[in-house]
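As practice, study what follows.
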Amino acid sequence: MIPLSSLSNSLNMAQQTLRVSQRLYCKMINGKELAEKYLDKLKIEIRKWVEEGNRPPHLSVVVVEGNASSDAYIRMKCQKAEFVGITTDISQIPQTTTEKELLELVESLNKNSNTDGILVQLPLSPTINERKVHKIISPEKDVDGFTADSLGNLCLNEPTFVPCTALAVHHILSNLGVPLIGKKAVVCSRAKHVGLPIALILHSSTRLGHDTEGLNMSTTICHRHTPKEDLIAFAKNADVLVTAVGQPNLIKSDMVKPGAIVIDVAFTEVVEGGERRVVGDVDTSEVQNVAGMLSPVPGGVGPLTIAMLMSNTFSAAKLLALGRKKEYNRM
């Protein structure tokens, strides 16, 4: 007769073996590697564009002084721009800048024929209405995809500038080699610049951006008013789960369908043991034991979001050059 202690030890070993095998099965999606490949390709395309007699694409950046995180983001974006052949200029505005002054600055960039794309780095000063600023950016230069025109066209399945984070999620999913048409997707976030555009691009059935096709998925949006039991039920049934809530460890293993694709978009700074680090919504240590593929934070969507900004800027340059050519031909 086998002692109960031996049976218990054997069961524990079997469970540990199963957890290890499940963890090895989960593919960790390397967003940095995907971004580098994309930027290498974009660099070649821009070089060819310039060799054909066009000027390099140009991105104008507006950022409020004194925000360390914003400064770090801008440095990364400008470094990637330089790498692919996009020129940049940065307008650093004091925290005391009024809304009127900022709107006038944006209007001047709208009229500047050398500026192809306009990026207003968030956050702005509390006294400035972000939506009002985005509203006046010329749709032809809206490389962030935040204007009412861009978001409206996205809703209507019209060609537009898709927000860069949504494009990053789309790029990840499109490069996994997994059939997605008709699959169930759940997006945890309805933020107008993040969750909503992601949901729209997942469910859309047609061309959206300048080289982006909708993914034809059955998509559900969850948000802070979704009852917890419903959130768990929706998430557990998703083939693709995308989360951008900003609540560390929100997504646990019991909320993930075995073999599902999980994409963490959230970006939250936490301090642990006196050290500052960035985390997402997904409890990676748990979820990697259940998910089939996982895009973690950091190193997942973030690098690709910057790459998509470069792509949008190049698209803006090509569209504006086409407009100038048509205008010249009418003269």
Q: What stands out?
A: Residues 17-24, 327-331 have pLDDT under 50 and may be disordered. The longest strand covers residues 58-64. The radius of gyration is 22 Å.
